[in-house]
Amino acid sequence: MTFAAQNDARAKAIGSKFKADLLGFGDLKSVANTKLPGSIVALAATGEWLIAVDGRNCQVLFAKSDVELAKLVATAGGTGWQPVPDRAYPRWLDCFDNAGTGVWWSGGGSGAQIPQDFEWARARNFTLTEFPPTEGRYIAPGVIDTSITDWFGTMAAKYDLAYRSLLWGHKPEWAWNRTPLPYLKPVDYAAPQSRPYFARWSVYDSPEPVAVTARYSGDFRRRFSESVASDPNYIGGHALGEVPDAGVAELAAVGNSPGVKELWHSYLSKSLGFDLQSVSLRHTGKPDSYKTWSDVPIAGPETFLGLDSHTVRLNARGTAIRIATKRESTANGSRR
Questions:
Q1: Sheet of 102-104, strands arranged across
Q2: Residue 199: exposure state from Cβ atoms within 10 A (0-12, 13-18, ≥19)
Q3: In total, how many domains does the chain have?
Q4: Model pTM greater than 0.85?
């Protein structure tokens, strides 16, 4: 079998990758000190592969023994072929095979052991997936903190490990403050979201592009990619978004925000062309349930789960936080 490459270097890369892929199965072994003009990989009781470089071509032969391989080499005129070098290809080519099995290092808040975790991964030929970085490392417009990834890259080089990065959202709070969101309006003595940490996923910190902060996300990703582009052990960013963190419950957490309700009512009336009676009929089955637009709620978990007024709710998720005034606290005998 002949792989025709663009040049000699590409031919070496092809042969080197082919050999690495064979050895990646585990049962196949390199055979040294043969008189054949190439690199030999053998599988016991099965046969041997010869991988060789022939100028701009990568040659691959298979036979059941050295003797039969030698005959094939002679027939192909391969006496001048050369063995393929190890690791003569970019490591990211291993992303979906030899480096396909990865471990989320220190994921989910689990403990990390240094250097044992790196030694463990090297012994098993596993890749590690770095955690973070997050967009929170974009500390100011045009400024990114790469210190964690720089350290991780140094450890990967020391232990000869391929590694990835989980590119989380978690935008820095300054991005929100720099460009206030028009649909977040204050409410006297109350927080507009019951779970501020998770509510941010539905308003400005979604893994999906958000118009208000998209330019910061794009700049972060570009600068991060540039920072690891020359690292031979870096094989890719693992972009992700945990769907439950931007689900119905989180959307419900901002459902009582005045600005969000205004957008929802505008969408119903102007974009869909519904009047109040039409909305009432669709939401409740009765045309006169809502007297004003302010009565129209945003769909929440109850809407999709079939919960009603007879349902007993045992958790406080989605319940508005009430911040008592000093006068109310004194009247109730509370010190806080």
A1: 102-104, 127-130, 163-167, 234-239
A2: buried
A3: 3
A4: no
Sign of the four-CA dihedral 286, 288, 291, 293? positive
Contact status, residue 37 vs residue 81, Cβ threshold 8 Å: yes
Same domain for 100 and 232, yes or no, is: yes
Within the chain, which residues score under 70 in pLDDT? 108-109, 132, 176-177, 179-212, 239-254, 301-336
In degrees, rounded to 5, the angle at the alpha carbon of residue 168 between the alpha carbons of residues 165 and 169 is: 155
CB 272 within 8 A of CB 262: no
pLDDT of residue 205: 57
By residue range, what is the domain housing residue 129? 93-182+199-243
Report the distance separating Cα 79 and Cα 15, nearest Å. Answer: 17
Q: Domain for residue 44, yes or no?
A: yes
- On whether both 124 and 233 belong to a single domain, the answer is yes
Please check whether residue 155 lies inside any domain of the structure.
Answer: yes
Q: Are residues 311 and 324 in the same domain?
A: yes
Per the CB < 8 A criterion, the answer to whether 202 and 263 are in contact is no
Query: Tell me, what's the pLDDT at 324?
Result: 46
